[in-house]
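S.,

Sequence below, as promised.
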Amino acid sequence: MNKQINISKNENENDFSGSPANSIIRLVNFIVDSLVWLILYFSVAYILDLYFVRFNSYLINYIYSISLGLMLFLVYYSVLEFFLHRTLGKFLTRTKVVSNLGEEITFSMIFKRSIARFIPIDVFYYLFSKKGLHDRLSNTLVVKANTHNKQ
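The prediction came back faster than expected:
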């Protein structure tokens, strides 16, 4: 009985975690996702500006632009990482987000992860640690995805 539980646990561990992604892969993820987010932001901003939103105040335009960028950033990371466990950068590098604790990822974990990316030192945290600050705060980890696994 105990042996079966250990086998199941090991199979689950293999399904939900591969080896942790290294710093170069994480950098590629960051660059690709930043480019995708910028393209998404400028496309949405252009369409909204062209058809819907026009303000006469420079300050209101500035606040609107920042708010739109933050909202799209949160939506991009939160939706893709919650439903697919990956962003476009992670698809490219064949990595995915998993729970540090071996449990199913919750939207709360992913949302914390997305919010933590706004902390200014998050980008520089990799100089001191293999795991990002947003990974630590949300109890998540980026690992190499198993090619035979559909998740």
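The chain has one domain: 20-144.

Coffee later?
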